[in-house]
Model the fold of this input.
Amino acid sequence: MAVAKFVLFNNVRFPNISDNAEIVEMIAFAALLVLFTTDRGSVVGSAISSVIKISVNPERYYNLSEDIDLNTGLIIEGKATVVEVEQTIFEQMINVISGNMGKSE
Done:
């Protein structure tokens, strides 16, 4: 019997200086979907696993909206609640694992 499994891998150690290497490390831990938070505006993606890029910096998101999937900065702008942003992230996860492409693909 197949069992669905959700594993959250949170990289809390010193990050790799290379965003590409950071994503590969997560994929090496069997990540099929990577939620990648960026405030530097990294436009990195992966051919191996889907990557959803999330920014908490509204200005960075607006400047790079073609490359960053989600703007959680809506919370600090007062345009959305935490619950609304959580729902948006969850919906984007479902969209990508259902076969739709993220902006880095």
Summary: The first helix runs from residue 19 to 28. Helices lie at 19-28, 58-63, 74-77, 82-97. The radius of gyration is 14 Å.
